[in-house]
Amino acid sequence: GPEGPNLIEEIRGAKTQAQEREVIQKECAHIRASFRDGDPLHRHRQLAKLLYVHMLGYPAHFGQMECLKLIASPRFTDKRVGYLGAMLLLDERQDAHLLITNSIKNDLSQGIQAVQGLALCTLSTVGSAEMCWDLATEVEKLLLQPGSYVRKKAVLTAVHMIRKVPELSNIFLPPCAQLLHERHHGILLGTITLITELCERSPAALKHFRKVVPQLVQILRTLVMTGYSTEHSISGVSDPFLQVQILRLLRILGRNHEESSETMNDLLAQVATNTDTSRNAGNAVLFETVLTIMDTRSAAGLRVLAVNILGRFLLNNDKNIRYVALTSLLRMVQSDHSAVQRHRPTVVECLREPDASLSRRALELSLALVNSSNVRAMTQELQSFLESCPPDLRADCASGILLAAERFAPTKRWHIDTILRVLTTAGTHVRDDAVANLTQLIGGAQELHAYSVRRLYSALAEDISQQPLVQVAAWCIGEYGDLLLEGSCEETEPLQVKEEEVLALLEKVLQSHMSLPATRGYALTALMKLSTRLRGDNKLLMKSPGSTQRDTPIFHLLRAAILEKMPLVERGGTQDEEAKESKEAQLSEAALVSTEPPVRRPEAPRGRGLGRASTPSPAPSALSPSCFSLHTPASVPNLRVFEREGLQLNLSFVRPPETPALLLITVTAVNTSGADVTHFVCQAAVPKSCQLQLQAPSGDTVPAQGGLPVTQLLRIFNPNKAPLRLKLRLTYHHLGQSVQEIFEVNNLPAETWQ
User: Fold this and answer.
1) CA contacts within 13 A on the Cβ side of 452
2) pLDDT tens-digit profile of 694-745?
3) Whether the model pTM is above 0.70
4) Is the backbone of residue 447 left (phi > 0), alpha (psi -120 to 50) or beta?
5) How many separate domains does the chain show?
6) Which residue range(s) make up the domain with 49?
7) What positions does the domain GAE occupy (predicted)?
8) What distances in angstroms separate CA 607 from CA 12, 510, 530, 571, 697, one per listed residue?
9) Considering Cα of 344, then 348, then 349, then 350, what sign does the dihedral take?
């Protein structure tokens, strides 16, 4: 076969993939034959060629036994290629790697440095747990050998062995104390790494090494003040890799240990004040110092110094350094709130970052910095961020502002204004309970009823697209419409509103294609309530869509009870109250007269349009008398339509007796596997004779091990009672792969359409 350089030339000269494959197949056949003939002189060359082929991504496993033969050979040229081959072609899954244990043992005890180096490199690359057990004492002997070349490699092999078999700690503990006196950079760096590994894995080792803290402090002080090896300094910082490694070890030794933390206080202050920050190497050392100060029981002044360093990082031109600073300040905000608070203006400035990951971190930190003394100023900043922030941050920003307002609101009026502004700016992004919370808040602030209804009416007149805003406004107008027409509110500009305008606005909401079924329910309820609140007669109301003259007696029946002003719902009532509340809610939903929405319990699934999955939206005949007697729909059996790797899809059916042409299907996705199902999307299609409306799902992640299921409501209108078929398309990510499934459901129970 061709020599190495010629083979490389030939492969590179191949014009097509097929041509390259041909050259390589021919060469592999030749290498195989040469292995069979066992030509001892050129064996290492053939293996070297095979390794080149392997690095190009072609199979080379047939060279494994050849590696073992070369390792066992007495010649250095053979050993070198043999060990390199072993590192590339062997791993723990093949038994062949156990066969090299003896060769390594012999090579380690021979005393030829270059050969010992090869054996140690291989052992720390492919050494399995069994090999580590067998060879630990050999490696331990080499740790204190005279030659620094072998000692350095032995230390790194010891690190590998501790990671593989933590029980070997005791063998490697004693030599470490002696190795710390080394001046050789590589050995010292390796020793610090070895001690770090030992301390992380064994409480006994942690206790043992606490007594070397003064020695570590001395090594680091020498590095910072004098810098003993110029060849290892990087842009003026003395051996930053060693500094960082020592700081990490000090962090582990000082955690929850008063005495060790005290020993390192002065040194940490020295590193923090003497490190040059104009270059990245200096910033790396400084950042590591900050982390060590944060994690140990350091003095209060030192913690303030750490926060100030992070504050300086926020002004750095490098994005990564700013990101690191924001992340670390977020960790410190609980323990050192007032020190972090000083950097608030800089943090708020970072909200304007064009980089999404930076602005997300800045948002999290800004929200954590809100307290009762700065709530007005911070909310102002966050609201202006909300108006221009990237879409994927809007939900987090909106709910963050609402939570902060709930905790720290200085006055009720300010609280109402804040929620209103969020709903106006980012209504579609707020959590489901925002509507319930605001109606609760307004209901409880009697002195602000007139103010609230005016503010909401004006907001609604400007924009009817933000659904939560429209729902609160409709609720408020229904409750306090009489105050809106009185015009007796000193708090706002005089606002002249006529009954006709109010009714026209609610009618506009009812007819808008943007209105969700729930929103229409709110508007319809408001219209009905206004029939008892307004001075004029109800002729105007009779014109609202879906009303007929025969409905009039019902108004009179209902006036007394259902349309009275809402009593204030206590938040977090007992379970009995909650059960009663949900019963009332169901009743009012059946009537499609949704009074104040019940206050949600925290575990209610998120996702709009699902809270009301059990009932239809206000149908044209919403006010017909039959609605007010509550039927239990005939039960239709549930149906499992899909199962794969722990993900199940079940359908449950409801046909409301008052609208027999309507079928409500709730799709429930449950995941019993060990991994979350993410990016879950379910789409559906029905025959042409039916109309399908797909509500938004409660989420797009189905949590593992039977966590909270994802639900989605399908509303199918089938006026001709045509036989029903359903076509479903699922797409999701699960167990590392993306899945797409399309299937038909032909076995729907006859009760769903007949």
Assistant:
1) 30
2) 888 888 899 988 888 899 999 998 888 888 889 999 999 998 888 889 899 9
3) no
4) alpha
5) 4
6) 1-89
7) 634-749
8) 57, 22, 30, 22, 6
9) positive
